[in-house]
Amino acid sequence: MNHTIKTILQHRSIRQFTEQQIEQDKLELILQCANAASSSSFIQCSSIIRVTNPATRAQIAELAGGQSYVETAAEFLVFCADFNRHLQVSPNAQLGFTEQTLIGAIDTGLMGQNALLAAESMGLGGVYIGGIRNNPDKMKSLLGLPKYVVPLFGMCLGYPAKLPETKPRLPLSILVHQERYQAIDSDELAQYDLHIREYYAARSSNNKQISWSEQISATLNKESRPFMQAYLKGQGFSTR
Prior knowledge:
By secondary structure, the protein is of the alpha+beta class. It has 11 helices and 4 strands. A 4-stranded antiparallel sheet has the order 1-2-4-3, with helices on both faces. The longest helix has 24 residues. It starts with a helix and ends in a 6-residue tail after the last helix. Pfam families: Nitroreductase (PF00881). Belongs to the flavin oxidoreductase frp family.
């Protein structure tokens, strides 16, 4: 167990922040760590938009489903898959391949994780904001995003006002497969469902009675931003 592993294992989403601002040198380090993430074929197809204008933050909070911490966090960053930069470098670049969409999503996700882990290692906290995809066209307009740029997620960062309990993850016996994909073990799933029920019932806020299986059923048995396919194609992604 070292500091890096301890930081990773203690991850929890932070939605309540103090009024303390993030020091400039720490913010720069966070961004440098984001930029150090792995990049497929060194394409470097991600961009980060730092949003500081209170009015813009308020609009994003509303567009993201009324997530007030977008306004109250010391920093709010929007992570984008970006192939417009490449078009500027090479006007004849062949874009629109689905593989490029995957690369953009993977590389940008890696960049975001680097940023959050760096922040957590310095005593900061944060939370991902997938809700910016609730209204992608309005986000595009608000942030002035050109074609071949897609906002994938936001990130609130700041000093935690409260440290919630860490949420129990799937056991490795369910997560890790040996040699070939294996069906889930019903007994192990039942034990995990019980663990999650106990966690939700005992945590200090937002108590509820639900298992992981029930939560997944509720989440995956409804529409999930069906407009994203058309939006992606409109921005030049996954057209072929």
